[in-house]
Amino acid sequence: MYLSYKWLKDFVEIPKELKTSDLGTKLTVHTVEIDGVESQAEKFESIVVGKILEINKHPKADKLQVAMVDVKTEKLKIVCGAPNIQVGMMVPVALVGAVLPNGLEIKAAVIRGEESFGMMCAEDELGLGEDHSGIIELDQNAKLGMPISEYFSLDDVVFEVDNKSITNRPDLWSHYGMAREISTFLQTKLLKDLSTYKKEDLKTESRKIDLRVKIEEKDLCKRYMAVAVSGISITASPSWMQARLISVGVRPINNIVDISNYVMLELGQPMHSFDAKKISSLKKEKIVNIVVRQAKKGEQIVTLDGENRELGASDLVIADEKNPIAIAGVMGGRESEIDDNTTAIVLESANFFSASIRKSSQRFGLRSEASQRFEKSLDPSLCEVALHRAVELIKESCPESLVSSHVIDEGNFTYEAKNLKIDLKWLSKFLGLEIEEKEILRILSSLGFDPLVNSGELQITIPSWRATKDISIKEDIAEEIARNYGYDKIPVTMPKISMQIPIDNTEIISENKIRKILSSGASMFEVCNYSFVGEEQLKALGVDFSSFVRLANPISQNHTMLRQTLASNLFENVKKNQARFANIRLFEIASVYLSIDGNIKKSDSVTEVLPREERRLGLLLANESDEVFMETKSAVNYLFSEIGITNIKYCQREKMAYWSNEKYVTEIKIGEHVVGNINLLDNTVAKKIGIKKKVAVAEIYLGEAISIVESMNTTKYKAFEKYPALSRDLAFILDEGIIYNNIKEEIENFHEYISKVELFDEYHGDSLGKGKKSLAFHVIYQAEKTFASKEIDDIQERLLHFLEQKFEAKIRNF
Predict the structure, then answer these.
(1) Residue 679: pLDDT band with limits 50, 70, 90
(2) Is 390 exposed, middle or buried (CB count within 10 Å of its CB: 0-12, 13-18, 19+)?
(3) SS3 sequence, 151-208?
(4) pTM of the model as a whole
(5) CA 78 from centre of chain
(6) Which run of H or E residues covers position 723?
């Protein structure tokens, strides 16, 4: 956004001795970021008023002419191709060395054999418009040699504002809003009071037009004001208005359109003018019906930029009795635009819901000056001020014009003043210094907060222009005081913090250690998934989601509930990557959310608690191998061995996941503590959810596992055995359904001399018989003596007999 220095001075006293560059610095320090301060006169340096003395045909080019131009200090020979030049014509002349606003540098040149020392300029070449049909004809009374910036009153200074710095300040998208800020930090007088503009002052001067407005979407349009004005004559705007608009980068069009733009830039309220005849019921400017509604399916509108746009049901439009005539808050329609034949207008000043305007603007890729302001949440009170100001300017431009309808004011807007109370002791503590009460009151009064101090308590009333998502808490007021007082006046002190050894967060340390083990040693890739799942996703897995915690405001239909397991989203990772990778090895450390009470309160003021949150580790392997389950089990073994846990057991799990293969459902135990599970994805379910690989998932309860690791972190030492151990191998055949861990436990507990049991082979084959498998163990015998071979043989024979009775195991002898 651009600010005109001259324009600002209409509203605020600025000391003459204050340099414009210094004002830019003060604006940056106190209010907004100023990206640049540019003198318009510098842009038009070496461009002056000249007079054509003589014109001759170019001897070698039919379309060129050679003119002699007087610029007061000298007479210049200039080659020109414009068809409209005449002897005696006053024209803008760019001298040799001038750099035009479009970047073109003027040099002495030879054009088709004729020397040329400068250039006569068209409108577009000076950045004053888009016309390139001919040289600008200046007033005959213009002074020779006068700088063109002075002739066009373009000797202003322009401040370039970084829009990001005012995105939360709708009141600053105008010269008046900025002037209010300047008057506060410069401690000068604000020259105009906008409260003097009242709709009651807009007296109806003629009942020529019956203007009616209906708002169908009152949630999207808080206030819609309009008035009809007849006796309009479309002309060029006054030169002072054109100069102001050009200074801030707006191209002048005609008096009515320019007035709408001028008021928007001056007060911050976007406005729009409709040709009354084009939208009236009888096309005779008698009855005008305006409806503020949402667009209907299939409706289209040709906007002022000439684009035909198809409207959607979410778009708010301004319509006549039949068709849309504007996209509300974004851009008007071509069918109702002001043209040279316009004699009566309907002037609109409205307030629209910010989110609605932003969505329409983004959907159409149409970001206008109006939409930029509406999407910031404008003050509805501004509609009245802007309408009054616009009519005032129209009457100046068209003295014969008349207010030809009642002033329409529709909507559900009523402003109820909001109040805040702030303890002055809290304010001093928050700011880090004590500001005089007198200065606090001055700052807030200048900003329009109507402050009052009573018994050490500051009471303020929030003005309407700061109540739209800007000022709502006491910290906001503290910021207003601090920035206007001056951040540079706040003493810089280092915080006083005692040096303490940081407390180790064992959970984070353990999780980081697990990440390192799995990503390096186990060659697995970490994933980070959303904590959300959807109904369709869980239905496909056969999961009963009736107890899942639902989101009040889900980000999409696929993310409506909080997950209770990591597996469901890990399956989605496989689906997305299975076409590119033959072997997928993933892990995720994240939270799941159970529909039971946790230990965190929803807020300090209530006793209700949030759902229980648990940290878990998910490991997933996916490939074409039948051994994927065993590979996942090996990954779990590797992880626990690396963190120092060796007493892991795998047991049959009674409760299985809905999606798992019932033969491969295993519980992970450390001692007697259950710390997780391993499941194989059922082939039928895998096909249903679109997975073509064999998948196994381990899910470990990190809280339980980490607490066990902490209890075991004391290093224990054991002396070497004095006597040698004896090893016997044992291989037998048994049913596939018998769990390895159950047999291992029975062998370990069979005799006190058995110190260790290791599985070294598992075999499945037709030679064993249907539903059979072979397990082979190393059985290690250890005691405080040297064994005789016969003693171990006797124990081994009794062990075989026991296993045969317990598990119907048969010795494998082939």
Answers:
(1) very high
(2) buried
(3) HCCCCCEEEEECHHHHCCCHHHCCHHHHHHHHHHHHCCCECCCHHHCCHHHCCCCCCC
(4) 0.63
(5) 54
(6) none
